[in-house]
User: Fold these one by one.
Assistant:
Number 1:
Amino acid sequence: MDAEWKKTLEDGTEIVRTCAWSPPGCHPVGCGLKLHVKDGKLIKVEGDPEHPVTKGRLCVRCLSLKDYIYHEDRIIYPMKRAKEDRGLDKRERISWEEAMDIFAEALKANQEKYGYEGSCLFNGTGRAACIHAALGCYSVLQSPNQCYALSGWSCYGPRCAVVNFVAGAGIPEMDYAAGFPLRYDDPSFQVPNYILVWGKEPPKSNSDGLFGHALIELMRLGAKLITVDPRMTWLATRSHLALRLRPGTDAALAMGILNVIINEDLYDHDFVDKWCYGFEQLAERVQEYPVEKVAEITEVPAEKIIEAGRALAQSPSSMTWGLSVDEAPNGVQTGQALMAIMAITGNLDIPGGTILGPVAGLGGAEEKDVPTQVPEDALSKKVGVDKYPAVGMIQNTVHPDLFLECLETDDPYPVRFAWLQSSNLISPTCSAQPSRWHKALQKMDFVVATDTFMNPTIMAVGDLFLPVATFAEGDGVVFTHFGSNTTNCSAINKAITVGEAKSDPEICFMLAKRIFPDIYTASVDELVHGYLSGLGAMSGAQNWYELRDIGTAQVPVTYKKYEKGLLRADGKPGFSTPTGRVELWTTMYRNLGDDPLPYYFEPKMSPSNTPEYEFILTTGSRRVTSFHSEHRQIKNLRDIHPNPVLEMNPADAKKHGIEEGDWVRIVNEHGSARYKVEITPILKKGVVNAAHGWWFPEEDPNEPNLYGVWKSNVNNMIPHGDIGKIGFGAPFKSAMCNIEKAE
Ligand SMILES: Nc1nc2c(c(=O)[nH]1)N[C@H]1C(S)=C(S)[C@@H](COP(=O)(O)OP(=O)(O)OC[C@H]3O[C@@H](n4cnc5c(=O)[nH]c(N)nc54)[C@H](O)[C@@H]3O)O[C@H]1N2
Ligand SMILES: Nc1nc2c(c(=O)[nH]1)N[C@H]1C(S)=C(S)[C@@H](COP(=O)(O)OP(=O)(O)OC[C@H]3O[C@@H](n4cnc5c(=O)[nH]c(N)nc54)[C@H](O)[C@@H]3O)O[C@H]1N2
Ligand code: SF4
Ligand SMILES: [Mo]
């Protein structure tokens, strides 16, 4: 890459090279951008052709960045509202000085009354903010209660737990040569024969740091896809095999594929002998899943299951697994079986295979270089980790379902100070049964929010609004896969200033200096860049400024790390598990009270368990025009998808006399929601797919309407607490419902 991060043209226009993260929302792909700035204003955004992975490609959200940044509704100054005015569209501009005073006084009052554990911080997903959440929660609030409120911690956390327990490693990802300067031409890389794309739609989601377009590049080089998805997605139509399963039956399908690989003796005997533990027990368990039975459970034809097993045994083959593994109470078993497929076929950590990462969490360990931490006695009070230690171990946060119960009942103790750091949880986003969270949050003595726009959650309960900078307005770092299996680490460069908005790390250190003036004596700028230098260390750069000059540092993959002693703390070959091997029979599952071998169970709500419902309800498949509840106010994005859509198969629609564009009400025992029907053959018969994240910025913001947040709130139909044994996974991708025509 060009060594200059900023250039000035003759007419005074500055061109700032940077990489994207959030806000506005995205996962850490870190797409390369060139921001054109004239007279301090962003005038144009283009892709950076020099970025080694994204090579100038951008999606519509980054191309709309200007509209987001300069939107008339954006809040760019600190605001306060009196507690008695909660739920009313009132606010008053204040200075940062006053805002910090209000914050510090409220926190102090809360700590005096309820202790360090009496406060909490909510973070959403995958954004830059989730990396900084630990700083805000553990170092500013000194509270143990960092909360990702999605029932069953159903995003990324379950997959992290699976790999950690099964292979003692960080998140696995398909090899797409992202860390090599020569990319696919690197002599050590091999194009995979098959790529298993499980419950994931990377061209739309670019999730977890995977650049979705890489799948298309690999297809062009000859790789064939096997997609596992109830919807016939764009990728599925281009797949060698499209396995259209019944939602929620993933674990059964994975066991069926294992049955084929083992019974047809297609597995890699050498790898299994040297590096796996519990193969005999797994071989016995898969006998309970003959393909005919699996075909019946999953609705995937037996011959396709057989073909998938035979294909994946052709090494190198790889896997990329998605949110559908997490958003199911049976998900950690699905993940365990998928890891077993990759392991016994010898596809782990080989060129063109599924690459393992070093262990590192998303929910984040405490930032050790920061001097203030949670006091020991408060740390041991983290809510819910006694019952679900896996969540505490892997994510280092509270257990979301138990935290809601804690807020509702004050058991084990009252929590009365909340920081909505990056979550709009009462919208159909980061919660099951958001109306319960709404009520629970109303009990707070004080709520501070750091965000870019007003949203239903902040409108309902926020007392203080601290305006956050977009990624174009502050320095930062972005690394793929949240530091776990990172192939690229890039600098985010401040190009413009908008109002008085500050970046998340700036806000954290401003507050830290206000609360602990004797401890944080350096300037905010020094504190922020010292902290960013630490976060960017995996790039190999000495400090953040060096990373800025590099732009995007590639972190080359080392293959077969298990042979080289690179996965274990003691430097010995093998895996960082109790047996030193990939545990097909998983000690940690057993220790946590679950079955050590993978198994399938029918979802609680399913055609056989709840026959009163006609449709399987899956939700939330991504659309490029929005990130969860974000972007609804950006006109050119909203114009593409103006309404909350329910996808329905033509035969199902016909049976109910429903026509394209009709409004319907989806209903179950937990709630109901209003949706506009899109009739499409991509959806399996008997399955409907509801979009999530909907609220209506153009509607009345005041309680009880709250921008219409309850109208199309599909999450009110997802039960609270229907989670897996070790605390992970909830049925966001496989609930049940009936459908009625609506006005
Ligand atoms: N039904 C259903 N519900 C789902 C899902 C589904 O598939 N189906 N998916 C779930 C998943 S996987 C997730 S992760 C959750 C997401 O849930 P949330 O993370 O709560 O998503 P948002 O509602 O977009 O809220 C994020 C808020 O943070 C702000 N924000 C964005 N980036 C930043 C940042 O860097 N800093 C700060 N301070 N603020 C920022 C945004 O403006 C927005 O208001 O939704 C879940 N909800
Ligand atoms: N544009 C955009 N990108 C995003 C987000 C966004 O809101 N907008 N959100 C981000 C976040 S936080 C996340 S976690 C990721 C998620 O991104 P992905 O991991 O790609 O997951 P989804 O898009 O939720 O769903 C992927 C596919 O799963 C299928 N599916 C539904 N039910 C099932 C099932 O039971 N089993 C199987 N096997 N498949 C099923 C859906 O049809 C869909 O095609 O996306 C991230 N990227
Ligand atoms: S995936 Fe799209 S929104 Fe996300 S950083 Fe890349 S171009 Fe921007
Ligand atoms: Mo997510």
Number 2:
Amino acid sequence: MAMAHPQVFLFACAIALLASSSMFSAEVTLLSILFMYIILLSFFSPYIYIYVQNHTISRLCGRQVISAVNGSLPGPTLHVREGDTLVVHVFNKLPYDLSIHWHGVFQLLSGWADGPEFATQCAIRPGNSYTYRFNLTGQEGTLWWHAHVSWLRATVHGALIIRPKRGRSYPFPKPYREVPILLGEWWNANVVDVENEGLTSGAAPNNSNAYTINGQPGDLYPCSSNKTYKLIVKQGKTYLLRIINAALNNQLFFKIANHNMKVVAVDAAYTNPYITDVVVVAPGQTTDVLLTANQAPASYYMAANPYVSVAGVPFDNTTTTGIIVYEGAKPSTPKMPILQAFNDTPTAHKFFTNLTGLVTGPFWVPPPRQVDEHMFITIGLGLIACGKTGNNATCGGPNGQRFGASMNNASFQLPTKMSMLEAFFNNVKGIYTTDFPNQPPLIFDYTNPNNSFNPSIIMTTKSTKVKKLKYNATVEIVMQNTALIGVENHPIHLHGFNFHVLAQGFGNYNPTIDKNKFNLFNPQERNTIAVPVGGWAVVRFRANNPGVWLMHCHLDVHLPWGLATAFVVENGRTPSTKLPPPPQDLPKC
Ligand SMILES: *[C@@H]1O[C@H](CO)[C@@H](O)[C@H](O)[C@H]1NC(C)=O
Ligand SMILES: *[C@@H]1O[C@H](CO)[C@@H](O)[C@H](O)[C@H]1NC(C)=O
Ligand SMILES: *[C@@H]1O[C@H](CO)[C@@H](O)[C@H](O)[C@H]1NC(C)=O
Ligand SMILES: *[C@@H]1O[C@H](CO)[C@@H](O)[C@H](O)[C@H]1NC(C)=O
Ligand SMILES: *[C@@H]1O[C@H](CO)[C@@H](O)[C@H](O)[C@H]1NC(C)=O
Ligand SMILES: *[C@@H]1O[C@H](CO)[C@@H](O)[C@H](O)[C@H]1NC(C)=O
Ligand SMILES: *[C@@H]1O[C@H](CO)[C@@H](O)[C@H](O)[C@H]1NC(C)=O
Ligand SMILES: *[C@@H]1O[C@H](CO)[C@@H](O)[C@H](O)[C@H]1NC(C)=O
Ligand SMILES: *[C@@H]1O[C@H](CO)[C@@H](O)[C@H](O)[C@H]1NC(C)=O
Ligand SMILES: *[C@@H]1O[C@H](CO)[C@@H](O)[C@H](O)[C@H]1NC(C)=O
Ligand SMILES: *[C@@H]1O[C@H](CO)[C@@H](O)[C@H](O)[C@H]1NC(C)=O
């Protein structure tokens, strides 16, 4: 059954209602219709329609067909309030399979709306649609939505801004204006082709050609003088910049010439105010900062360049810029901030570790004190056997093999016949196995570079191993980066939950020493943790949401290589702690 567009429907109702009354003058009637339309519209505003389709745009001296929502890059910003119900009808007019993930949304009892293909749903086939329904409860701040199939999220993404309920305020002074800043990554190519080329050869896929701010590369790139994001500010006013790293494969430094920023939230969780001249943001993460226009009226560049923790590999070393123009300033060449060096790990580490959670803020929950499940998970790269037989062909990765990646030496492979959530709900065997280990199968000197190409441990194999958790279990995970192939800072994203980040450090995690570093008082809360390069991070969360929740590296190059696993959280005993049945229109495989 096709549902009529509710806005059109309501407008028609409003007209019908008013047409039946004859006591209004024409003007009053028109005004009343408009007024009523606006009231009804705001009442029903959580109904959102998005169309994902081909869109041709000019960037960097060329024209490129991209997949885009409603013909815009980035896609539309969705504005909601805490406590709202969101109903999003997604129409797939692409030639590709599609699904949309609501990054950072808790999806309490609405796992069917989480989005990752083969995890919580099968893809929306070309020409089909799916309606995502979920509540935004117990979280406020900046989140975002993006495609969760292949590399489509490069251009299929947008901001999801959750404001406090009406009548409630931020735990910081009300900003004059709020501005989403989406940092992106651009290829002069079809990103699906770029990904497939890499996966076919086993080599690393092509690097991007540019970074972008709100879809624009900025005037340091060729043919881009009028492809530069501009923000006009009033001197003396304070702006809330909602910074989202929507890039596929790169962490970014973000700076504004002559201006400090005050961090007030990350990943839609409030932080203690933290003043900095540089924000570091990994793919998947968001950072809300207050920017006060307290400089002389002039133009100032905002700029983002990559933080590259891995040594000796080629990367996109370009810089994207936008311009902050003070109202009334004479036209001038914008001042440029001093960029961080690409390998400036000390700056990244300082930023990432200095943030603390706002214990007096709304929705603060202290970290669990008691731990039911202790997990130690190695994360990093490895090699997958080339797999070509007969003709002795070699693959494009190191040693003639394929690039791989794993957690506890299990290189994650999504199922293809059915989503894991359907298998969970219907008790279907053979889609995943519940033997993801709590410890790595082999204890070795994880971060010793001498192990980078140790042939006895570098190979890994594909499987679909998940970790089963009892409802409401508390979980502690030590994430330990390995030196296999090379050390690298991996942003690990957990679906369905925020975790508290208790501690982070370099080298091999040592429980006797490092347990003393745990911050159990005001740890930062996140959905994506950038695990220090050649180091470790400790997080805790409470598994109070039944369903199937991916945990994976948010560098899209590493996800198909296998840097992932999933938690299967069992139902609780009461109806209000059980996953409801799937919606009728859940896409079929
Ligand atoms: C997307 O475009 C459709 C059709 O123009 C429109 O009805 C819808 O409101 C747009 N969605 C958003 C979120 O802007
Ligand atoms: C959309 O773009 C893809 C990739 O460029 C192309 O193969 C396809 O034919 C296009 N579809 C339409 C309807 O234009
Ligand atoms: C959202 O919350 C409302 C009110 O509590 C509830 O009736 C509804 O089932 C929830 N929807 C989803 C998708 O969880
Ligand atoms: C990747 O880069 C190589 C070398 O520049 C180029 O030949 C190839 O076409 C690129 N692949 C894609 C899918 O754009
Ligand atoms: C600026 O944009 C216009 C319209 O998109 C285009 O015709 C023009 O060539 C662009 N100018 C430069 C310098 O890129
Ligand atoms: C970026 O890399 C290219 C190619 O290696 C090099 O020529 C260029 O100097 C680098 N630019 C920066 C800013 O490091
Ligand atoms: C901030 O980071 C620096 C460098 O890592 C460290 O010395 C300092 O103690 C940190 N401050 C806080 C409040 O965490
Ligand atoms: C190719 O593979 C066959 C069968 O595994 C093996 O006997 C042969 O020595 C290989 N040739 C080369 C050049 O490696
Ligand atoms: C790496 O191996 C070399 C040669 O065996 C050795 O001298 C060095 O100490 C090793 N490095 C580490 C960190 O173990
Ligand atoms: C990972 O498993 C493979 C076999 O699948 C084994 O050869 C390798 O030594 C293991 N490596 C580690 C680090 O456990
Ligand atoms: C989950 O555990 C917390 C802490 O022990 C407890 O307060 C809460 O009631 C539990 N929830 C359920 C539904 O059992």
